[in-house]
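Morning F.,

Quick status update on the modeling queue. The single chain you submitted on Monday has been processed. Sequence for confirmation:
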Amino acid sequence: MWSSAERSRAGVSVADGLFGMPTAIHSVKTLCMASWILGIGIEASRSVGTADSPGAWLFCLSGDSAKPGTYEIPFGMTLGELLRLAGGVTGELQAILLGGAPGAFARPEALDLPLTYGSLRQAGLPLGSDVIMVMNQSRDLRRTCWHLARFFAHESFGKCFPGHSARRGNWRSSAGWPKDACALMTWRSSTTSPSP
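Structure tokens below.
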């Protein structure tokens, strides 16, 4: 199936970036935000957003959204406002995966949560890679978790928690589903916090 041997890691950009030279640019988003701040000035950029999360940010919205895509919004906009900006959810909302594949699931009650560093941290949700995946009731969350675990088992270097855990085989149960699949399916009714 998958090899549990660790693979060679890609270079770290601060030491081995473009053309083998160090760089502080980790993504296109860094270039976008730097040019925006330089274009309007630091004070003007800090006037957008909130006190603890100033500025605007790029969020990649995918899944069961009417208009998936990349949205530049000011920090402080709620998760629900972002979904409405993207045309809403197609179908009835079941869960929202925040922070990309190694992120965390939020329940529909999290729609009032402001997208700021502080509010997400307080809710136990990551900003991560700024990816927000919307899932309606037709999605099987157990299967989604199984695919995520399979991804980390195959693609990870085994250095981060999801990859290390997946490489050790913790993602499998006798039925091939994540061990905590039953717990995953009951999280919506067993907790009142925005995160499972």
